[in-house]
Specification:
The complex is a heterodimer of chains A (273) and B (752).
Chain A: E1 7-10, H1 14-24, E2 28-31, H2 37-42, E3 50-53, E4 63-66, E5 69-73, H3 78-83, H4 85-90, H5 93-99, H6 104-109, H7 112-118, H8 124-132, E6 135-140, E7 143-148, E8 153-155, E9 158-159, E10 166-173, E11 180-185, E12 195-200, E13 203-207, E14 214-215, H9 217-224, H10 229-233, H11 250-271
Parallel strand pairs in A: 1-3, 2-3
Antiparallel strand pairs in A: 4-5, 5-10, 6-7, 6-10, 8-9, 11-12, 12-13, 13-14
Helix pairs in contact in A: 5-8
Chain B: H1 13-17, E1 36-42, E2 48-54, H2 56-59, E3 64-69, E4 97-98, E5 104-110, H3 113-122, E6 124-129, H4 136-141, E7 154-158, E8 174-186, E9 194-199, E10 205-209, H5 214-225, E11 232-235, H6 251-263, E12 267-270, H7 273-279, E13 282-294, E14 300-310, H8 322-327, E15 337-345, H9 360-378, H10 382-389, E16 398-399, E17 405-406, H11 411-422, H12 424-437, E18 441-451, E19 460-467, E20 473-477, H13 486-498, E21 505-509, H14 526-553, E22 560-563, E23 566-569, E24 575-577, H15 578-584, E25 587-594, E26 602-612, E27 618-628, H16 635-654, E28 685-688, H17 707-723, H18 738-751
Parallel strand pairs in B: 1-12, 10-11, 14-15, 20-21, 27-28
Antiparallel strand pairs in B: 1-5, 2-4, 2-6, 3-5, 7-15, 8-13, 9-10, 9-12, 13-14, 16-17, 18-26, 19-20, 19-25, 22-23, 23-24, 26-27
Helix pairs in contact in B: 5-6, 9-17, 10-11, 11-12, 13-14, 16-17
Classes of the chains: A alpha+beta (273), B alpha+beta (752).
The complex binds flavin-adenine dinucleotide.
GO molecular function (chain A): FAD binding; oxidoreductase activity
Domain FAD-binding PCMH-type (chain A): 1-177
Protein name (chain A): Carbon-monoxide dehydrogenase medium subunit
Chain lengths: 273, 752
């Protein structure tokens, strides 16, 4: 439980973090809340040579309305999402999903940027942001680019982010009165999702149903075509590729995706207005 | 007014709750200044021949003082459990073969702890893999042998001298048989294993270790080191939980002491959580085949229990535990014909030891499942079948067909109390309503009745007590608290006789120079042996004080009484304090209490669960428990023991299981994968009081430490199955995690 030795640098600004990334190249890794990175380092599954700490950059910690969207700084802690009155009103799915992450300690350390960058298909926020149709803003020496989350993930723990890019912001639409629900199935309260389903405004995001968070497109299309909740939910596992592990077989995950989608859609229908 | 039976708050809590407790790894002792840190290179494969070990690169790594292999350790392999075949001796560091993931192979000693893992990563070991054998039934076939010289994987057994009686069930109208898995679980104490050692100029070794009994750990380590036991001074600092897995010594303790001897320096070791999840003893791990027979009127006539126990790679206490399982096979029931046998096999997995209940929960789980299956078969209410077959209260002491002599019990009364507190009839009505409505959330009700053995291993315990001239009191005990609250409870027992407030009484334990004899804390033995010994010692001290005071006060002993820390002449104001007596001459007694036999606490649990029929997820809604361990010394402490036990019991039923893949790789070796519970997974507990004293000790007390675990597991398992009984489901193995329950529901639907 002792990581391989590494160098530690605390960046004082995003720009400095970027130039440190450029300076150290592939050997460097950003450290935000550390709640995904440090466990894998302690198990020696990762051994970065340089850690660039962006965890204390206040410029990355904000939640504000910008037109039809809400802009969230990448360094915003799960706890801040959970407790945000703004989000509760404008985008209630996100705080609901954040509330289910781990336990209070984890939520007080982990960040939305870290969660999205890490790319664990079982995590909660990527599925929620996917259902929201959010975008991810990345900054590098080449400037800033915005990537829709639908194009962000390329596989398990992998994204289109370049090594010298910092996620600076996550943008989600103001969903206002649209129906929404977050259904997370766990063995224990503080566990990662066996399967989770995020629903908002007729869009459905799935956690842990494949190598990346997935949209239940077939179910969404059926809904749009006027199918009943039951009929649509029955399609929720189409085009998914879940794994089998200790708590669940792939078949069971498919079943859960269908059941949870049905429940989430039902809740969302009740919440709309 | 007597202090006994009152809710005295734990005197140890302020320290524990403010992080003031000192665990082995926290020790600051000048003898340990500059100690080397031990990092163990453990086998990453379950079963393999070691073809080469190259430590040259590791020896060159920064901070490395020594890298020691099995060839250099200078300790002979040892049989870790009395009665195990000599071929199963375990080397302290593996030399030619490894038999489980986590087996220590090379010891790395570094100046700083952080340097250890880097150096360990440079050790190169070549393994020539052998097939793993994880399933005890596979091990029984003997196709893959762990110990070739032994020629079999069967390392022990009980009741194998005669064949099962083929006519056992001849008189029965109904016979039901079922294979059960009582799954392997991890003790997972918050404090992982730790030890530190230093040799003195006097040729003795001081060994600090996290254990549940210093004295037997000392004896074991001395034996393994090949020294007289007086050479070892073993000290247990605060211990953060054990649950049976810290009984005695682990080979690592001797390794630490031997490495200190080899290097001439202090050595300390504190394992990581990952090491703990493969290196520490695990529990349960029995495959059972039960057969129960009886008549349609509800009378059970015969019961057979066939146990296949998994010992893990190297036999430890787990090899012996089926003895208890057989002894307790008939549980609370008066069954005319009972037979059982047990075989123990080795597998390429972590060794099995004691875990909260140790052998008895396995017996209870089996007979309680059998009762349910029998009840279902004859269509009778499971609570009714139980009450019909329990041992009647006028039959005690009662010797069962399992061979145990139960001291006292009122089993039907315990069941009735639990049923009443749970409103059993109301629950059954609610269950019927839900079924009628076709609710997706089904209600299940599980009833268990249990009896267990406490103080089963060692019946005697030592205590000494001394009043000091300043009026304070020191109690020395041979028990070894690691969460139970002996500092409070033993002080209460001394206070009762002496009238000295508990704040002035210090309880010491776990230092073998100070307390050379003691049997430690396990098997819920402490109060009924060690506690009673303290009570007896305090009583003897009162007599001694009276005799001395009689001279000083020129009064006759009969006229004297001890109250509030002083000897008074009855009806007068003439008195002398115990402190004043101690000033003249040490006021101290040493005593031993021997109960001569174990006691048999009992109880009944009712669990109420809700099962989501769509997902298979079961949630315990309520649990009502009657846990009768005789008169209660301190309800706060007893309730705490019940709470912890119930939590662990529920967790075995629903969540916990140590699993391996087919290659013998542990796949539940982190706390993310190993599903032990948090408060969020548990309901509030309804504890019902009942106290039937034992005649075996003057306080009438029995043990309470394991009761919750023993009763809760079968009650919860039964409740989940009960929730699904209308689907035709009669049995599901533990843990009844969502996947397994859902699969059972699917299978039942397929059958329908
Ligand atoms: C006990 C426990 C339980 C948990 N339970 C859950 C759960 O139920 N659900 C869940 O979703 N998660 C869970 N998590 C994970 C938690 O949410 C993490 O905090 C989160 O996944 C990562 O955020 P972080 O800020 O800690 O990132 P870090 O661990 O600091 O970093 C993670 C990765 O992201 C990169 N990174 C971080 N910030 C940026 C950035 N701004 N730009 C580019 N790359 C960046 C890092 O370089 C690293 O590779 C749990 C964690 C723990 C320890």
């Amino acid at each position: 439980m002792i990581p391989v030795g590494f160098e530690y640098v605390r960046a004082t600004s995003v720009d400095e973090a970027i130039s440190l990334l450029v300076e150290h190249g592939e050997e460097a890794t950003l450290l935000a809340g550390g709640h995904s990175l440090l466990p894998v380092m302690k198990l020696r599954l990762a051994a970065p040579e340089v850690l660039i700490d962006i965890g204390r950059l206040s410029e990355l910690s904000y939640i504000r309305v910008e037109g039809d969207e809400i802009a969230i700084g990448a360094g915003t802690k799960h706890r801040a999402l959970e407790a945000s009155e703004l989000l509760a009103k404008e985008c209630p799915l996100l705080p609901a999903a954040a509330h289910t992450v781990g336990d209070p300690q984890v939520r007080h350390r982990g960040t939305i940027g870290g969660s999205l960058a890490h790319g664990d298909p079982a995590s909660d926020l990527p599925a929620a942001v996917l259902a929201l149709g959010g975008t991810i803003v990345l900054r590098s020496p080449r400037g800033q680019r915005t990537v829709p989350i639908t194009g962000f993930y390329t596989g398990v723990f992998s994204t289109v982010r370049d090594p010298d890019e910092v996620i600076v912001e996550v943008r989600v639409p103001r969903t206002g009165g649209a129906g929404w629900a977050y259904e997370k199935f766990v063995r224990r309260a503080n566990d990662w999702a066996i399967v989770a389903v995020a629903v908002v405004d007729g869009r459905i995001g799935l956690a842990n149903m494949g190598p990346t968070p997935l949209r239940a497109s077939a179910a969404e299309a059926a809904l749009a075509d006027g199918a009943s909740i039951e009929e649509a939910a029955a399609l929720a596992d189409q085009a998914t590729d879940p794994v089998s592990d200790v708590p669940a077989t792939a078949e069971y995950r498919r079943h859960l995706a269908r059941v949870l989608t049905k429940r989430a859609l039902t809740t969302a229908a009740g919440a709309a207005g | 007014m007597s202090i006994l039976g009152t809710r005295v708050q734990r005197v140890e809590d302020p320290l524990f709750l403010t992080r003031g407790a000192v665990y082995t790894d926290d020790l600051v002792d000048e003898r340990l200044a500059g100690a080397l840190h031990l990092t163990l290179v453990r086998s990453p494969v379950a079963h393999a021949r070691i073809t080469s070990i190259d430590v040259s690169a590791a020896r060159e790594a920064p901070g490395v003082v020594a890298v020691v292999t099995g060839a250099e350790i200078g300790l002979e392999p040892v049989v870790l459990q009395g009665g195990a075949p000599k071929e199963t001796a375990r080397p302290f560091l593996a030399t030619d073969k490894v038999r489980f993931v986590g087996e220590p192979v090379v010891a790395v000693l570094t100046e700083e702890l952080y340097q250890g893992q880097d150096a360990a990563d440079l050790v190169e070991i070549d393994y020539d893999p052998l097939p793993a054998v994880v399933d005890p039934e596979e091990a029984l076939k003997g196709e893959v042998l762990l110990f070739e010289d032994l020629g079999t994987n069967v390392v022990g057994g009980f009741g194998l001298d005669k064949e099962f009686d083929e006519h056992l069930f001849d008189d029965c109208e109904v016979v039901v048989t079922q294979k059960l898995v009582n799954q392997r679980v991890a003790a997972a104490p918050l404090e992982t294993r730790a030890a530190a050692a230093v040799w003195g100029d006097d040729g003795r070794v001081t060994l600090w270790a996290s254990t549940q009994n210093a004295q037997s750990a000392r004896d074991a380590v001395a034996g393994w080191l090949g020294v007289e036991r007086d050479v070892v001074h073993l000290i247990t600092p605060d211990v953060g939980g054990g649950f049976g897995a810290k009984i005695g010594a682990d080979p690592e303790f001797a390794l630490v002491a031997q490495l200190a001897r080899i290097t001439g320096r202090a050595v300390r070791w504190s394992e990581t959580r990952s090491e703990n999840m493969t290196g520490m003893l695990q529990g349960r791990a029995q495959i059972q085949t039960i057969t129960i027979g009886g008549n349609r009127n509800g009378d059970v006539l015969a019961y057979r229990l066939d146990v296949l126990a998994d010992a893990g790679a190297y036999p430890r206490l787990g090899m012996f535990l089926p003895y208890f399982t057989r002894q307790m096979a008939p549980g609370v029931y008066d069954i005319p014909k009972v037979e059982s046998r047990a075989r123990t096999v080795v597998t390429t997995t972590t060794s099995i030891g004691a875990y909260r209940g140790a052998g008895r929960p396995e017996a209870t789980a089996a007979i309680e499942r059998a009762m349910d299956l029998f009840a279902a078969e004859i269509g009778m209410d499971p609570a009714e079948v139980r009450k019909r077959n329990v041992i009647a209260p006028d039959k005690f002491p009662f010797t069962t067909k399992g061979g145990a002599t139960y001291d006292s019990g009122e089993y039907a009364k315990a069941i009735d109390k639990a049923l009443e507190a749970a409103d059993y009839a109301g629950l059954r009505a609610e269950q019927a309503r839900r079924r009628e409505r076709g609710d997706t959330v089904a209600l299940g009700i599980g009833v268990s009745a249990y009896v267990e053995i406490t103080g089963g291993g060692a019946f005697a315990e030592n205590a000494s007590i001394e009043v000091h001239p300043d009026g304070t009191v020191t109690v020395l005990t041979g028990t070894s608290p690691h969460g139970q609250g002996h500092a409070t409870a033993w002080a209460m027992l001394a206070s009762e006789h002496l009238g000295v407030p508990v704040e002035k009484i210090t309880v010491k334990h776990g230092d073998t120079d100070l307390i050379p004899r003691g049997a430690g804390t396990m098997g819920s033995r402490s109060l009924q042996t060690g506690g009673v010994a303290v009570y007896q010692a305090a009583g003897e001290l009162v007599e001694l004080a009276k005799q001395r005071a009689a001279e000083v006060l020129e009064a006759s002993v009969e006229d004297l009484e001890v109250a509030e820390g002083a000897v008074n002449v009855r009806g007068t104001t003439t008195s002398i304090t115990l402190a004043a007596l101690a000033e003249k001459e040490p006021l101290k007694v040493q005593t031993k209490f021997d109960s001569g036999a174990p006691t048999f606490p009992f109880g009944a649990h009712v669990a109420v669960v809700e099962v989501d029929l769509e997902t298979g997820r079961a949630v315990v809604d309520r649990i009502v428990t009657v846990d009768d361990a005789g008169p209660v010394l301190n309800p706060l402490l007893a309730d705490g023991q019940r709470h912890g036990g119930i939590a662990q019991g529920i967790a075995q039923a629903l969540l916990e299981e140590v699993r391996y893949d087919d290659e013998g790789n542990p796949i539940t070796a982190t706390f993310a994968d190993y599903a032990f519970p948090s408060a969020a997974e548990l309901p509030s507990f309804t504890l019902v009081d009942m106290a039937t004293p034992t005649p075996l000790n003057p306080l009438g007390v029995k043990g309470i430490g394991e009761a919750g675990t023993i009763g809760a597991t079968p009650a919860v398992q039964s409740a989940v199955i009960d929730a699904l009984s209308h689907l035709g489901i009669r049995h599901i193995d533990m843990p009844l995690a969502p996947l397994r329950v859902w699969e059972a529901i699917q299978a039942a639907k397929g059958d329908a």
